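In response to reviewer comment 3 from the previous cycle, which asked for concrete evidence that the modeling workflow produces usable outputs, we include below a single protein chain processed end to end. The sequence was submitted unchanged, and the resulting structure tokens are shown without manual editing.
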Amino acid sequence: MQILITTSALSRTRVLQFTPVTLVLALLALALPTMMLSLMLYHAVVLKAAHEHWPVISQAVRYVEQQEFAQRDRYMRENLDAMAAKVGDLQAKLMRLEAVSERVAGMAGMKPDELKKIEAEPKGASGGPLVSMLDDKPTSRILQELNEHMGHLQASSERDADVFTLIESHLFEKRLEALMVPSSAPVIGPVGSGFGFRTDPFTHRPALHTGLDFPADPGTSIMAAAGGVVLSAGPHPQYGQLVELDHGNGLVTRYAHTSRMLAKQGDLVKRGQKIAEVGNTGRSTGPHLHFEVLVEGVQQNPAKFLASQPPAGGPGSPKSNIASIK
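The workflow returned the following structure tokens.
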């Protein structure tokens, strides 16, 4: 495309030649400023009309804003409904968890007063929906109620965590107490002489036998009947090589006539740990273990403690022999 420009008959004619590319660029150069100016004018007119409440334009602007607000509010309500449903499920789970914690606390031997001490607020009968989304409430009110319920749930979860920590502590204490009770047979084998009066093998007169005798071959392993601390380990004129374990709460066990002591004073031992070997030291007529249980320094019948241990199996187990001497 060519454009000829002539100013007079004697002047030279000017020729302007346009290619398609130059035409497109020229149109864009004219169109862009025009569009920007139009947008600015439109924006200014619309804002002025909205602020000054022009009859037609202001109504159109308000209608568009109302539609946008309604769509936004509908979207928020849908999301809040979903959140409220999840919070309701969480609340139901926490209520079931509280019921479980109360049952477990009872099994752990905890009293209701102990649980009340750590409750942030008194619990009572409650129920009903978490947040009523069916009512025509403002979105801000719904969000406020949801935040309040979330705060209550958080407080409840923290309280339940404290409850379970306390229950775990009580269960651990009970387990420790059970581990400290001498209920495991110290020697695998039958029981010879039981607790009570018998004819003394040396004086041949009636005398109180203060423990249980476990006849066994020399060198047979002697295990701790319960966990505890070695109170003493050394020679004794009557008991021979004697090991004493302190289990706390006034409970002490004695393992007498041993041939070799593997534990020394102050050692911490656990249930079933080998602490000595059967022997024939001290006032003894043959290789065996003399086993005693003392409560506050007074000898008790060890069979009452060992009877709580399940039988090892067979008629030769310590349980069956203990039952036979009661």
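The helical segments are 20-52, 55-107, 112-116, 139-179, 302-306, 318-325. We consider this sufficient to address the reviewer's concern, and the full set will be provided in the supplementary archive.
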